[in-house]
Structures are given as structure tokens and as C-alpha cells.
Design a protein that fits this description.
mainly alpha
């Protein structure tokens, strides 16, 4: 059995995005409490396994088109390294195991509904919505937002409205940037929806969303209802993070994928770690 191909099919490097699940817990002040932390970890595992299932379904649906793509042709299903039946079998196993971790995390209707909603919108995306302009970007953005809402529901923590808006705006920026760079580096022939976009449209909307992200985050940080009054000190760090990310996306070689952008930029990684340490210090010390 080609274990490396199965691991590649699950795309574990994209679990980096699932750390958004821990944001509500971090900002709540309960990060180091065993009950809350264990539930967030279980939720992280459940969501990661479900995300892998979604990737498998998407690769199964697009295996023939991916075989013609200069980058995606190396995916296990597109290359023939894994058979379609074996891939679907793995997806079933992942769903069962994810259900166990979901039960340990939080078996509330809200938490289950958010997880099911993530699966549903991504199935709809794979089977047609990805070919509808704006809708494709909206679904990719919603995936980031659902991670945060799911993380909050897993530990019973309500998300601030300003924080929700900041994450929503930044999610649109990430999705638009990925779309823009795919067109810029590969062209419009690899996906039907790409012919509806042009770089000027994507550029304008990217930076509108980036500006809104900074505004919404700042409003969250200085909100009178903010329990941790010192978090406004993180605003300059967030500015540096978004500028560094934006600079990396502007590089001609970048494909705009958020995970690739972060992992290939040491300065950005350093800033993210510094933000996490600073935020933890301000909230817990």
C-alpha cells in the first residue's frame, strides 16, 4: 500500500487553516483550562478529518480535469496512484472517526450543524457552485468563517460581532488573492469560472476586503465590551502581518494559496508566532 499517496490525498498541510478553531478559546481567557482545551483539540481533529474527506470528494469529482492541470495532475487520484474506490473507502473511514471526535468535543446541534454545513457547502462547491463567479469565492471564504464559529461552538464561547466581521473580510481577501494568482500564473483555461474574472476586478476587491479587515479588527480590539483591554497593542502587529502577506501574494511566483504563502515565508511565520505570543501574554498575564 502506498501510504504516502493516502497521506497526500488527505492534504494534512492544510490542517494549518484549522488552527482558526482555537481562536475563540485563545481570546476567551480559558486556553489553559483542561476542559476547554481538550474539547478544542477534539474539535480540531474532527474538523481536520472532515476537511480531508471534503478534499477526497473534490479530487474524486475533478480527477479527470486535474489530470490536465500543470500542478494538480500530481494529486493521487489524478495521477492514478490511488484508485477511486480506495479513495472513497478512506473517506468513509475518516467520517466515522471524525464522528467519534465530534462526540468527545461537543455533541450539540449547533456544533454538529456547523460541521455538516461545511461538508454540504463544499459538496455543492465540488458539484457545480465552483463554476459560478463570486459564489466560488464566497464558499471558500465561508470555509474559514465556519472554522472559527465551529471552534467557538465546541467550547460554548460566543464570537464577537467585530471579530466575526474581521475574519469574514480577511477570508474574502484570502480567497480573492488565491483566485487572482491562479489566473495570473496559470491562466483562465484550467477552470471554467476563471474566464469571468480579470485581475483588475480581483485586485480592487482584494484590497477593499483587506482594508475592512484592519478596520473590523481594530474595532474589536478597542471595543468597550472587550474584556482584555490591552489587546489593542496587537493592532500594529496585525498591520505588519497583512502587509507581509500581501507582499508575498504579489510575488509573481506565488499561487496565492494561503497555506503555501504562510509556509514559504519565514518573515510571515515569525510575525504569526510573535502575534500568538503577544496575544497570549496580553490575555493571560
Amino acid at each position: 500500500m502506498n501510504y504516502r499517496a493516502y497521506i497526500k490525498l488527505m492534504r494534512p498541510k492544510h490542517y494549518l487553516k484549522n488552527f482558526l478553531i482555537f481562536l475563540p478559546l485563545m481570546f476567551s481567557g480559558h486556553l489553559f483550562e483542561r476542559h476547554y482545551l481538550s474539547h478544542s483539540i477534539f474539535a480540531f481533529v474532527a474538523f481536520s478529518l472532515i476537511a480531508s474527506t471534503v478534499y477526497i470528494i473534490n479530487d474524486f469529482k475533478d480527477r479527470e480535469a486535474d489530470a490536465l492541470h500543470p500542478k494538480k495532475k500530481h494529486r493521487p487520484l489524478a495521477s492514478g496512484a490511488i484508485s477511486p474506490s480506495a479513495a472513497l473507502g478512506l473517506a468513509v473511514v475518516l467520517v466515522i472517526v471524525a464522528g467519534v471526535f465530534q462526540y468527545w468535543a461537543n455533541f450539540s446541534l449547533v456544533s454538529i450543524g456547523l460541521l455538516a454545513g461545511y461538508v454540504l457547502i463544499n459538496i455543492l462547491y465540488s458539484f457545480g457552485l465552483k463554476n459560478i463567479p463570486i459564489m466560488d469565492v464566497a464558499i471558500l471564504s465561508l470555509g474559514f468563517v465556519l472554522r472559527v464559529l465551529y471552534g467557538g461552538s465546541a467550547v460554548g464561547i460566543e464570537i464577537s460581532k467585530w471579530l466575526y466581521l474581521a475574519i469574514l473580510a480577511f477570508s474574502f481577501y484570502l480567497s480573492l488573492g488565491k483566485q487572482r494568482n491562479e489566473i495570473r500564473t496559470i491562466g483562465t483555461h484550467t477552470r471554467k469560472v476563471n474566464r469571468f474574472y480579470n485581475q483588475e476586478f480581483l485586485d480592487k476587491n482584494m484590497y477593499v476586503c483587506l482594508g475592512l479587515t484592519i478596520v473590523y479588527y481594530s474595532l474589536w480590539a478597542i471595543d468597550p465590551a472587550q474584556v482584555h483591554k490591552q489587546v489593542f497593542w496587537t493592532i500594529p502587529v496585525v498591520l505588519l502581518i497583512v502587509m507581509t502577506y500581501s507582499l508575498s501574494v504579489e510575488e509573481s511566483a506565488s499561487d496565492g494559496d494561503p497555506v503555501s504563502v504562510v509556509l514559504n515565508n519565514k518573515a510571515l511565520l515569525t510575525l504569526l508566532v510573535f502575534y500568538a505570543v503577544l496575544m497570549t501574554t496580553l490575555v493571560y498575564l
